C-alpha cells in the first residue's frame, strides 16, 4: 500500500470515529458535570481487570526496573523527548480550536527544544519561559461541541470517554512528525509515548499502586479521578462546569445537589 493510501485510510477511519463520537448520547456536562455516564460498566470492569492483570504481570515490574536501572535524569530526558515529539500534533489541535497564538507558541517551543535542546532531550524552552503546550484532539472535539459520551476503559490504555478515545486514536496516528518525508523510525512518536508512560508508571508507582491495588473498588476510584480531572481541564474559566465535580458521590443518583468543598459539614 502506498503512503498516500495509508494516509487516506487513517484519515477516513478518524473521520468515521469522529462521526460516531458525535452520536454518543446525552452529555454529562449538561447537568454541571456531576453525572457519571457509564452504560457499559460491566464491559468496562472486565477490561479494567484485564488492564490490572497486564499492569501487575508486565508493566509495573518493567516500569520499576526501568526507573531503577536508568538514572532519573535520563528518564526525564526520554520523557521530554516524547513530549517534544507530540508538540506538532498539539499545534495542529490548537489551530483546529481557533487558537493561533497557542499554535505559534507550541511550534516555537518545538523548534527551540529540537535544536538547542538536542532533539528534545533537554528543555531550554522552559528556561526561556516559553509556555508548555497541553491539549489534544479530545479537547478539540470538546471545543467543537462534541459530547463527552459514555465512560470507557480502553484495553492497554486505561480510563477515557468516547470523545477522548477518538482523541487518542487521532493523536497517536496523525502526528505530523510521522508524515515527515525523512524519519529514522516509523511511528516514532508512538514508541516514545510508550517509553514516557513506562517512566511515569515507575516514577509515580506508589500513587498508582494505591489506586489500583489499595482501594476497595479500583475501577470506581479510577473512573472518578479521571472524570474529575478531565472535566476540570476542559472547564477552563467556566465555574459552573466544574462545580459539579464536588457533587456528593453518596447522594441519590437522581439528585443534582452540589456539595460545597469548603462547607463545614458539622455546621448547624
TrEMBL record:
Residues 1-27 form the signal peptide. It comes from the Bacteria. Keywords: Lipoprotein, Signal. It holds the Pfam family MlaA. Belongs to the MlaA family. This is VacJ family lipoprotein. It comes from Ruegeria alba. The lineage of its organism: Bacteria, Pseudomonadati, Pseudomonadota, Alphaproteobacteria, Rhodobacterales.
Amino acid at each position: 500500500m502506498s503512503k498516500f493510501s495509508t494516509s487516506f485510510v487513517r484519515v477516513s477511519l478518524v473521520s468515521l470515529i469522529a462521526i460516531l463520537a458525535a452520536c454518543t448520547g446525552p452529555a454529562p456536562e449538561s447537568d454541571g458535570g456531576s453525572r457519571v455516564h457509564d452504560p457499559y460498566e460491566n464491559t468496562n470492569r472486565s477490561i479494567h481487570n484485564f488492564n490490572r492483570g497486564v499492569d501487575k504481570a508486565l508493566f509495573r515490574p518493567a516500569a520499576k526496573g526501568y526507573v531503577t536501572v536508568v538514572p532519573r535524569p535520563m528518564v526525564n530526558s526520554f520523557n521530554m523527548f516524547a513530549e517534544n515529539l507530540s508538540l506538532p500534533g498539539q499545534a495542529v489541535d490548537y489551530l483546529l480550536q481557533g487558537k493561533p497564538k497557542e499554535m505559534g507558541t507550541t511550534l516555537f517551543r518545538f523548534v527551540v527544544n529540537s535544536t538547542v535542546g538536542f532533539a528534545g532531550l533537554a528543555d531550554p524552552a522552559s528556561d526561556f519561559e516559553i509556555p508548555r503546550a497541553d491539549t489534544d484532539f479530545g479537547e478539540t472535539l470538546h471545543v467543537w461541541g462534541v459530547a463527552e459520551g459514555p465512560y470507557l476503559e480502553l484495553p492497554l490504555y486505561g480510563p477515557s470517554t468516547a470523545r477522548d478515545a477518538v482523541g487518542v486514536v487521532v493523536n497517536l496516528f496523525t502526528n505530523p512528525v510521522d508524515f515527515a518525508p525523512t524519519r529514522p523510525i516509523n511511528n516514532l512518536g508512538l514508541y516514545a509515548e510508550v517509553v514516557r508512560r513506562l517512566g511515569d508508571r515507575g516514577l509515580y508507582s506508589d500513587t498508582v499502586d494505591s489506586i489500583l491495588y489499595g482501594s476497595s473498588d479500583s475501577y470506581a476510584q479510577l473512573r472518578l479521578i479521571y472524570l474529575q480531572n478531565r472535566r476540570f481541564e476542559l472547564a477552563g474559566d467556566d465555574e459552573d462546569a466544574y462545580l459539579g465535580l464536588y457533587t456528593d458521590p453518596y447522594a441519590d443518583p437522581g439528585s443534582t445537589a452540589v456539595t460545597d468543598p469548603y462547607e463545614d459539614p458539622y455546621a448547624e
